[in-house]
User: Which sequence fits this backbone?
């Protein structure tokens, strides 16, 4: 995840919830199903914004939200890309194995160019799927939890793993890298408060994971509802209402069914409905807020340093394999 500071509910629903679930999944014999690695993609952040002055602060805030949401750093190392040097080394090697035209065809890049109205792109921006491939392959990652929009990047990683393995086979004929798979689990996207498809800080339509109940209520007041429900007793349509999308995620199901019925009949007004929704969201955030309150920025820094030491060990070992098959050094 790129360090963009405090995280919002969209990050939780789209990624964090899933990460915690994977971290805690156990086989019948109690063994962990997955070993998670959580990368703070600070170099990736530079591909679209070269101002690095807030990266540290943003990383700390993000780590506090990860920890408060249930990422256990003893099980799942948390580390900054910039502090584990093999990321740049493997990135350089992999960048020799892919053509610029292949990278120019990357649909996510085309989307970014369009959305950010870029006239030209930096060399590093073109190559960011290659850096992402290095991020995954250094840990010999087999599974990458992603949203559907990220699958083209996983495909590039798979291509690079195949190409590296074919170009530099081990003496036994096998490859150094496994071909990772994108795991599209329960990926869901939370609509923004303004009804836009995505919660995003740049759109100002978010509820932060670290919001107090008053802040949640203030945010919820701005949420877009069914615009045809003008007066309190007008019948409404929850299917087109942002608030109802949040009820579906955060309010118990039996209550949500009642809200659906009462909205349609006109028995429930939007002001009351938003109050209930804010209460549900705050109840959900309560344990996160409590855990976050007990954490200090220093603890987040210590977690990153410890995670970096562990990540470095794994990444260096992979690079020894890489250098050996390439006969470097
Ligand atoms: S009553 Fe609730 S669900 Fe219905 S339109 Fe208003 S806010 Fe949305």
Assistant:
């Amino acid at each position: 995840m790129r360090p963009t500071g405090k995280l919002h509910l969209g990050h939780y629903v789209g990624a964090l919830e899933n990460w915690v679930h994977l971290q805690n999944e156990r086989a019948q014999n109690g063994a962990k199903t997955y070993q998670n690695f959580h990368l703070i993609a600070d170099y990736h952040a530079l591909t679209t914004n070269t101002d690095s002055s807030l990266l540290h602060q943003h990383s700390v805030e993000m780590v506090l939200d990860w920890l408060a949401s249930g990422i256990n750093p003893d099980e799942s190392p948390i580390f900054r890309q910039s502090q584990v040097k093999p990321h740049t080394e493997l990135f350089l090697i992999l960048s020799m194995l892919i053509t610029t035209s292949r990278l120019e065809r990357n649909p996510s890049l085309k989307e970014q160019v369009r959305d950010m109205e870029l006239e030209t792109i930096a060399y590093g921006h073109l190559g960011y799927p290659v850096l992402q491939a290095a991020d995954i392959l250094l840990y010999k990652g087999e599974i990458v939890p992603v949203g559907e929009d990220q699958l083209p990047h996983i495909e590039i990683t798979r291509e690079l793993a195949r190409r590296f393995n074919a170009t530099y086979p081990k003496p036994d004929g096998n490859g150094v890298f496994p071909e990772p798979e994108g795991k599209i689990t329960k990926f869901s996207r939370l609509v923004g408060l303004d009804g836009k498809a995505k919660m995003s800080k740049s759109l100002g339509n978010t509820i932060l994971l670290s919001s107090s109940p008053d802040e949640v209520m203030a945010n919820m007041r701005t949420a877009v509802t069914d615009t045809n429900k003008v007066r309190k007793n007008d019948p409404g349509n929850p299917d087109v209402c942002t608030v109802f999308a949040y009820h579906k995620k955060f309010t118990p199901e039996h209550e949500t069914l009642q809200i659906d019925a009462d909205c349609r009949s006109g028995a429930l007004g939007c002001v009351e409905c938003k109050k209930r929704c804010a209460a549900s969201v705050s109840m959900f955030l309560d344990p996160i807020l409590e855990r976050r309150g007990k954490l200090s920025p220093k603890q987040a820094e210590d977690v990153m340093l410890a995670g970096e030491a562990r990540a470095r060990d794994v990444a260096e070992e992979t690079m020894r394999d890489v250098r050996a098959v390439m006969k470097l050094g």
